[in-house]
Amino acid sequence: MTKSAAPRQAAKVVQLRKGTTLEMVRLCCPDPAQATLISESFGLPVLDGDGIRDLHRRLIVETADSLGEGLGERAMQIHLQRIVGAYVGSAHGAGQFYSRAVTEARDATAKAANDTRDEDLDGPVGFDSAAQRKREFAADMALQSHALMMAAEGAIAAYEHVVGEAWKPFERPVENPGQSVDRKAAELQMAALG
To answer: How does DSSP classify residue 180?
Structure first.
């Protein structure tokens, strides 16, 4: 006796668009020791990273407390998920920008060390060289990205305090994976043409 096998439906695989994690932020932003070294090397203010983290933690916890009566537990979790995601995304963007600024500063400094290149020599007396300006810009971006990373850490700590579980980035399902915007546009245009 043979049984006819019912045709199996292929399981739909849903691809997820990965969110930005705190680990990704930490990879591209300077840590507290490096931020302090940069501040001291460039004569910039030394940031109070712990203070920034604690202030943002308190700010978000107090905001959640004030919203407590108006939002249910799930609504509060969704609201804080979005807020923390914005902090983490901002810090990640600043960290990536800082990384590019460091690369440009390194390239300019390496070019300036080559004695046969006239265009990279120091400017007139009283003006910094292009390489020096790029190094100073990278140092400024280092402090900005570090400050935003500390704010993101505070926001994540607040989320855990209020919600009671560790924050994870929201992973959005990709709408039609493998289909580009151009392809969608072409299909819509062809459909309109009849």
So the answer is: -
